[in-house]
Amino acid sequence: MSLRYVAHHHSTRILHWSSSEMSTSTPSSTAPSTSTNQKPLKHRSVVSSFIFKLPPAYFSPPSSSPSSSLPTTFNFDPSIQKPLVAQFKRSDKVSTYTHHYAPISGSIDPTDPSPLSAAWREIHEETTLTASDLKLLRQGKPYTFSDESVGREWTIWPFAFLLKDPAGDGEGSEKRIKINWEHEGWAWFDPLEVRDTEDFGGVPKLKESLRRVWFEMDLGLEAGKVLAAGCKRLEEDYVSGARQMAGDALRILRDVIDKMDDGVLAGEYGDGKEAKWWKDIRMAAWHLWKNGRESMGAAIMSALLSALASVEAEVFQDHATSSKSSGKQLKSTIVSILGREISARPLTNDQISRSFASYISRNLPSSNTPQKPISILTLSESSTITHALSHLPILRPNSVLDIRILESRPLLEGVSLAASLAKALSTDLASSNDRQHSITIYTDASACHATQGVQLVVIGADRIASNGSVSNKTGSLSVLLATQHNAKEAKVVVLCDSEKVALPGPPEQHVVEDQGLEQVTRVWMGEGSSKRIRGAARTVLNFAHATRSEGKKKGKRHEEKEKTQVKVEVRNVSFEWCAGGLIDAYVTEEGEWNDENVKKKSEALQGLEKRLFEVL
């Protein structure tokens, strides 16, 4: 046990620890007691939040994303050489596990919107820390276990938070930790030295909860750092689409496996599908799904599950033979399988493009008339849509395209799409002197004008719910509604690969991603804005910063200092849901789909997710 620092109870506020019950059906569990002499166990769902300090060089390779949400100069502690995790010693005033080390824990109340919300609430109640002091680092896979000694069946929702160090002095937000009555002290530990032993003095399953957020314990430091850097890269990627990010997740998983210790792979292979190495690989994939960019999680999860199923089918098909493989041979086999999955991905866009050309031939009869343009409206910049539109004149040589594109603020992806298509179609035009394609860029506010007379509206998908609703770039819904009003005969097509289909569940379950005000206000303050607009932008920003910092002096200047009663916010929601009833077809690599095809795909995915992830 390495004890660096102990802070004793010094808060006089009394904050009650809720004892509310909350059931769950998703986590893996250990079997509860079946003894007839035991009273029924009371079930409690609780959050377990581990607070970490990390050295500056921990994430390697460093992220180069300009929109990093985890800047090195802000959240890392230059005074330490290795990761440290805080453990809080429970006082004699709590009902269970007195004088034992634990993370910040507490029940999930019925009024908590989510387990993560409960985690933030408990952290503030027990330490006074807020989002100004901490950043969510990772979530862990929940699990269930029973403890008859206290008459409880616990469902644990683990989270890891990173303590910020804004001052760069090695203490930072640590100074603000003020424990309440539930704790008598706290200490920093090397996470690799945390044990589920009596002499360590932790609560039951402490190490199990920790390993679910600190995967370095199972994967080893080298493979763990590759996974940590990979999750961070996915989290910060606001340029790539869901399909590209899914491919990146596969490459990260391949690199993690390549860095795993050969001895671990060989030493525990004899347990077949229950071997620890196979569980570790699946858990690594789970973290890439849940701790990357969650709004892109459907595509990432689908790609990872498909790859894991391929590994399972090939590696375990002949256990008697494959069990004799060395760790090095096994690693080579798995890396090779993932390599094939990665190499096959570019072919999907070709298949989707052919499906799209066939759909147009079947559903737009007038498109078969030479020299009559096909009017197509789209927005944002989907790699799948770019490929399909640029290849349409090749797959349908008589096609003349009238392409309309919304500029797609605040990042203006539509402008980039227009440039890519102009280059691709000019090459096609050079071989045909008797036709000319057209591309028109519309402002987002003129979406209604763009829909007039359009024959086909094409949107991409970052996620497709099991009921057929589609999550895509904000602005998609207004386009579809305008199309219903202005172009009732137009077809609305979702052009995407089938891995965008999510697990069963309503769209409301999925994350809402707000990118903050910087992307929006950058345009306001640009050279193209007038002096009046730039001045107005500064005023709005002053109020917005004052609102964001909860009335503190930080962010308030000049005449706005005393006007905190005015709440000003800038919303920048990236994606929105379009109901399935607004969509005519889903064109995928498997051809034209309807909402029933989407439902079947979602259900099949659920079966695969349960088999590979549920028992972890």
UniProtKB/TrEMBL annotation:
InterPro entries: IF-2B-related, IF_2B-like_C, NagB/RpiA_transferase-like, NUDIX_hydrolase-like_dom_sf, NUDIX_hydrolase_dom. Residues 17-41 are annotated as: Disordered. Residues 62-211 form the Nudix hydrolase domain. Pfam families: IF-2B, NUDIX. Residues 18-36 have a biased composition (Low complexity). PANTHER family: METHYLTHIORIBOSE-1-PHOSPHATE ISOMERASE, TRANSLATION INITIATION FACTOR EIF-2B SUBUNIT FAMILY PROTEIN (AFU_ORTHOLOGUE AFUA_2G14290). Belongs to the eIF-2B alpha/beta/delta subunits family. This is Nudix hydrolase domain-containing protein. It comes from Neurospora intermedia.
